[in-house]
Design a protein that fits this description.
The protein is an alpha/beta fold. 48% of the residues lie in helices and 23% in strands. The protein has 5 domains: 7-68, no CATH class; 81-178, PAS domain (Beta-Lactamase), CATH 3.30.450.20; 194-296, PAS domain (Beta-Lactamase, 2-Layer Sandwich); 312-476, 2-Layer Sandwich (Alpha-Beta Plaits); 492-733, TIM Barrel, CATH 3.20.20. It has an 8-stranded mixed beta barrel with strand order 18-19-20-21-22-23-24-25, surrounded by 5 helices. Bound molecules: ligand C2E and magnesium ion (MG) (2 copies).
Length: 737
């Protein structure tokens, strides 16, 4: 076994021997390169030097093995390290990296493929790497690689000569920590900016934190609150027991929620919705209380407003049906107890629908507001005025109510409504009709009192409007019948349970049926309502005339097209049109598309309007007529002479035809007045260049007179009643006398 030498000892020994040798060789005529084995053996006869060499070599091998082990050990540590390590050469080529670095920065690449390549070519985060390398002073730097937050440290390694040899970079993943920081930041932002006030106390109920909303709500700054107790905010409005219960609930369930009033720094009271919760640590020990408070002042205001709206009419701000019924019920209870009388006045504006239809709803609304004001000025303070909806108002008279008092008030109202209302610069005349019902005679409960006052109001309307009427039992029956008729009519419109009859319009000069008027019939009409003169006004009042009229137009045009296909060619079919139909914005479009759908030219249709429709909205008529006239549709004025139309308008509007009303024809030739009127209308039509048709001719004498006066077209029972379609077909093809 060779003696154990330390490396240093071995080197010293070898150095000494070599020196000896060189000294010896210096004395020899020999140069070291000539020193062969033989010479060596000669010089080192006992092999001291060779032996030492061997020993040293053995030792070095052993050390190499140890070094290899140590390197493997370091490599293993390097690769299992919880941080990524990258080693770059001086010229920024990748020399080495550990497993995590591969995974984070060069996913999918083998280390062998990376070695020696410039870092900025292979790394997807080359810029960050470069920045880091430039800094490379061992100080930590935060960088974000993709989803990862990394803390990076780069160190430059210098060689023995002090030259920059390598850069070693070490990255540790601090994403989790960063996330916590971010969350904390988020929570503190929430805490600061949330609309709810958040007040935190310690277990001893001393305030330790308060957010800005608390300051906004209470007026106290954070510094003024910290260290104080929340009781500094007490309003004094709650009994002590309130707080006792609050604490009991909190202690019991760890939670309290409720509404309470606090007092602000400047002494105002604020209503709050507040939640208080306990906070406990892991061991269950109480550490804090958190109170979250919402200022509900505006909510309270909204609630009050909603309450008002629920019981008042938004337009006039008068009590609504709900509140009225409530008051009426209470009034009845009191009256029952005291043996007193109550009066209910049910009020409906006359012709209000006309105003709405012709001037538009905004004007209608303004008029209602004005009407409400006028009514308010007429009633006593103790009376209740309410708006039930639409143009219906109702008045409850409680104190000193009697038939006489109610009638006096009704009189006063009717008289007051005779004066026009000034709305938007317009003077509008609108009357009102009133029905009166008294407790207890006319009804013992709120519902029947209202219903009966309503029925009486209808009676007042039927009796010619602008008046009042006291309820009576027969009235109720009439009202009932009316309601039933309305329901039946509605159903008939829905199921299109109507038919059309056609009355021939005859040209006396060529003895021919040149046209016909379509007149609606209701086969299933309730007793007493079969005549359109009866149900059309009701349909107009309920606006059912709109769908009904549309059906009539369509059915009449369909019939005309069918006759034409069967060989009967009439000049036109004449269809009656009501105001509400005309007022639909798309009325002319509807007419035109119906004509198109039956491939009929406009000339084959005549629409009949009364003078009153014309005068209700002359601008609207002018506009609609213009559209219809472009398509050739004829326009006739029905029942001419019974309304009020201005001759000036007659000239301006594109009118084709006047129809002399039956009432002027009836007493011809006996009544000189009617004769004069009929003759004048005929002359007028000639002057204006209009066609004229006399309606309701029943006798040859009437016809003779009218023919003499220059009227050549007639319509009436003398020739034919309104006929079913087939009968008209036959009639129109037969020769006339
Ligand atoms: P109107 O447009 O003036 O129609 C003429 C009315 O006089 C028809 O009554 C017709 O049957 C009747 N009549 C015709 N010739 C004579 C006669 O010689 N003697 C008598 N006593 N009466 C005659 P009808 O069919 O009862 O219609 C009444 C009113 O109902 C019509 O008056 C019209 O204003 C309305 N009406 C009828 N159908 C419709 C419709 O489809 N739409 C609209 N909006 N109104 C219609
Ligand atoms: Mg007519
Ligand atoms: Mg007529």
């Amino acid at each position: 076994m060779a003696p154990q030498l330390s490396r240093q000892e071995a080197l010293n020994y070898i150095r000494a021997k070599v020196d000896q040798l060189l000294t010896v060789m210096g004395t020899l005529p020999l140069r070291p390169e000539e020193l062969d084995d033989e010479t060596l053996v000669a010089l080192d006869p006992i092999g001291i030097i060779a032996d030492s060499f061997r020993q040293v070599l053995n030792h070095l091998e052993e050390m190499n093995a140890q070094l290899a082990l140590a390197t493997a050990e370091i490599r293993a540590i390097f690769d299992t390290l919880g941080a990524a390590v990258i080693v770059l050469s001086a010229d920024d080529r990748l020399e080495d990296c550990n497993r995590l670095a591969l995974e984070w920065f060069f996913p999918g690449l083998e280390k062998s493929a990376l070695a020696g390549r410039p870092a900025n070519e292979i790394c997807p985060h080359a810029e960050e790497l470069a920045a880091l390398r430039r800094q490379a002073d061992g100080s930590a730097m935060l960088v974000r690689f993709g989803e990862r937050d990394l803390q990076a440290v780069a160190t430059r390694i210098r060689d023995a000569a002090g030259q920059h040899a390598k850069t070693v970079m070490l990255f540790s993943d601090i994403t989790a920590q960063k996330n916590i920081e971010r969350h904390l930041e988020l929570y503190s932002q929430v805490f600061r900016h949330i609309g709810e006030g958040i007040l935190i106390t310690d277990a001893d109920t001393r305030i330790v934190e308060a957010n800005e909303a608390v300051t906004r709500i209470t007026g106290y700054r954070r510094e003024e609150l910290i260290g104080q107790r929340p009781s500094m905010l007490k309003s004094g409005l709650h009994e002590d027991s309130f707080y006792v219960e609050l604490w009991a609930k909190l202690a019991g369930s760890g939670y309290w929620q409720g509404e309470l009033f606090d007092r602000t720094r400047d002494g105002r009271i604020v209503p709050l919705l507040e939640t208080i919760s306990e906070v406990r640590d892991e061991s269950g020990k109480l550490t804090h209380y958190i109170a979250v408070m919402t200022d509900i002042s505006s909510l309270k205001e909204t609630q009050t407003r909603l309450d008002f709206l629920a019981h008042h009419d938004a337009l006039t701000e008068l009590p609504n049906r709900l509140l009225f019924n409530d008051r009426l019920r209470h009034a009845i209870e009191r009256a029952k107890r005291d043996g007193a009388t109550i009066a209910v006045l049910f009020l409906d504006l006359d012709r209000f629908k006309n105003i709405n239809d012709t001037l538009g709803h905004p004007i209608g609304d303004l008029l209602l507001i004005e009407a409400a004001k006028r009514l308010k000025g007429l009633i006593r303070r103790a009376d209740t005025l309410a708006r039930l909806g639409g143009d219906e108002f109702v008045i409850l008279m409680e104190n000193a109510a009697s038939q006489l008092a109610a009638a006096r008030l009704a009189d006063k109202i009717v008289a007051a409504f005779k004066a026009p209302f000034l709305v938007n610069g317009l003077h509008l005349h609108i009357g009102c009709s009133i029905g009166i019902a008294l407790y207890p005679e006319d009804g013992e409960d709120a519902m029947s009192l209202l219903k009966n006052a309503d029925a009486a109001m209808y009676r007042a309307k039927e009796a010619g409007r602008e008046g009042y009427y006291r309820y009576s039992a027969e009235l109720s029956k009439a009202m009932q019948a009316r309601l039933e008729l309305d329901a039946a009519l509605r159903e008939a419109v829905r199921t299109e349970a109507f038919t059309l009859h056609y009355q021939p319009i005859i040209d006396l000069e060529c003895h021919r049926t040149i046209a016909c008027e379509a007149l609606v019939r209701w086969p299933g009409a309730p007793q007493g309502a079969t005549s359109p003169a009866h149900f059309i006004p009701l349909a107009e009042e309920t606006r059912l005339i709109v769908p009904l009229g549309q059906w009539v137009l369509k059915a009449a045009l369909a019939q005309l097209a069918a006759w034409q296909a069967a060989g009967l060619v009439l000049d036109y079919v004449s269809v009656n049109v009501s105001a509400a139909q005309l007022a639909q914005p798309d009325f002319s479009d509807q007419v035109i598309s119906l004509l198109d759908s039956f491939a009929l030219p406009g000339q084959r249709l005549q629409i009949e309007l009364t003078e009153n429709v014309l005068m209700a909205d002359i601008d609207l008529c002018a506009w609609v007529f213009e559209r219809l006239r472009e398509r050739g549709v004829r326009i006739a004025i029905d029942d001419f002479g019974t309304g009020y139309s201005s001759l000036a308008y007659l000239k301006q509007l594109p009118i084709d035809n006047l129809k002399i009303d039956r009432s002027f024809v009836r007493d011809i030739p006996a009544d000189a007045n009617d004769c004069a009127i009929a003759a004048a209308i005929i002359a007028l039509s000639h002057t204006l260049g209009l066609d004229v048709i006399a309606e309701g001719i029943e006798t040859p004498a009437q016809q003779d007179f009218l023919t003499q006066a220059g009227c050549r077209k007639v319509q009436g029972y003398l020739h034919a009643q309104p006929l079913p379609a087939e009968a008209l077909f036959a009639f129109a093809q037969s020769a006339l006398p």
